[in-house]
Structure formats: C-alpha cells, structure tokens
Task: structure prediction
Amino acid sequence: MIRGYHTPVLVAEVTAALQPALAAASPDPANPALPVFVDATCGGAGHTLAVLEAARPGTVIALDRDKDAISWADQQLRLRAEARGVRLELVHTPFSQLAQVLGARGLTAVTAILADLGVSSHQLDTGARGFSFRADAPLDMRMDRSRGPSAAEVLASIDERELSRILRSYGEESDAPRIARAVVAARPTTTSALANVVSEAMSARQRRRLGARIHPATRTFQALRIHVNGELQELEQLLADAPALLAPGGRLAVISFHSLEDRVVKQRFAALSSPPALPRGLPIPESERVQAEFSVPLGRRGQTPGEAELAANPRSRSSRLRVLERRP
Result:
C-alpha cells in the first residue's frame, strides 16, 4: 500500500470485490490489453497498486482531476506497471468525462471501474489548498486548480439565499440561514476567517448538538467544497455512464464518504439491479421472470471498514463500498 500522499480506505475489500471480474477476463494472448481496469480517482494510487498486484489487468487507465495526484501516481505506478507488462495511461480529467475518455481510445466496454469519492488526504493535509480550517490559507478548495472559481471567489459574489441553500443541501446544516447571513456580511477569504465567522454565527443549541468532537465549521466547509467542485453533479454523470461501459461480468465499485453521495449511489444501484416491474397477479413462473441486467454482489448495505482499519485510519469511519455487477 502506498502511503505519504493519501491513505486509501477499504483496499482489501475493493481488491476482493473487483478481482472476480478481472480474473474472469484473464488476459487473452491475442489481445494482451485485456482486461481493462479504470481507476476514476487515482489519488495516491493505493487502490491501483493493490489491483496491479492482485489481479494484473492488461491495461490500467487512471483518471484524476487533480494534477498533483496525476504526477504522484505516475511516479508510483509507471515502473510497477512496466514490470508487470501492464499498459498504464494517466489522464488529467474529472470522472464525469469517463465515457469520452474511453470512447477516444476505442473502448466500448471495460472490466472494472473504481471511483473513490470525496477529498484526498493530500488535499486535506496540504494547508495551502484551502480545504481545511486546521491551517490558515486562502480559501481555494478546488480539486483542479486550473479550472473554475475558488471558494473565496464564490463567497465574494454569492447572495445569502443561494449560500443558505448550498449549506442546507450539501452540508445538511440546520443553521444554514444564520450562517449564510454572517458569511455574506463578512465575505471571508481565508480558511481561518471563514471558520471563525461560522463559529460565531452558529446557535448555542446547534453547538451543543455537535459536541466538542465536531468543529462548528465542518459542515460549511463540506458544503462549499461540494459546491465548488460540483461533486454531486460529477457523481450523477458517472453513475449515468459507467454501468453501460461495463463488459458482461464487469464490476463498478464506488466508495462514498457521506450520506449525500452514498444515497445517490445506493438509489442508482438499486434501480439498476431491480427486475422490471410486472402487473400484480400475472401468472409468470419464477424461472421465466426477466432478471435485472445488473446485480449488487455486496448486498444492499455495501461494506464498511473493519475495526482494525478504523483504529489505524479514523478518516475511514464514514466510508462505504458499494459494488454493481453487469450480469455475464
């Protein structure tokens, strides 16, 4: 496992979930590029390395919208992939562009896709990126610093009503109206300034509900980050495109970190794995009923970290792995 840039979660679980698909599509001497594994969020490359060691796909296509991640992954994976005879390609792009990336390479179906959602350890721990209130820095929060407005630029022009909607929708913040009012009045441009404004604006009741363990600004920072990066829109596009890009027997694995994104994944997977609805009382034997094109190998609840991982990496506590399989 690669450490130092990002600590990946559920590595063993992801590898175990994807290995059956990759093993079933074992390399064909006539086409050594198969099977194809796509890491839609390569980050620190920990998941990709584990898949390389366990399953040895013919081709790995690794995407990330963060140039820092692409550079790091290239350093970590290039020699390892070459030593295993694996074709490796790294692409600086958001995963909403997955269909376009594969189409440009003439790929209509792949064996396995992984998307590890949310922010990376590197982004959180690099104070200058502006994702965290633990270090004072300009409010940036962009996963791709070459595109779009920063969080500070958003706050410089946003109105109170829209900011309140963002805090309520993406942060599930019950004090959204009063926090939005205070933030718009102050228009903070640094992480510490924003954290202080939120802390002062939050009601005593909400502070008590959060307790000492959760900083008052946690939900505001989450909501702004999701908005700045269009994370839910990115996810919805991925879930619209990725299932159709799976080969028969192929699998899509998604790791979520909060209820908003997990709900989107859960509902999409449930819809795809449900058989067509039939009129009640229709006399069709069970053996003749049409099956859904997809299934969920890990069940409807997915998989969460074990006690050992939770102890070693507290940031994994909210993670959940869900897997969708296209029936062979």
The domain at 123-229 is CATH 1.10.150.170 (DNA polymerase; domain 1).
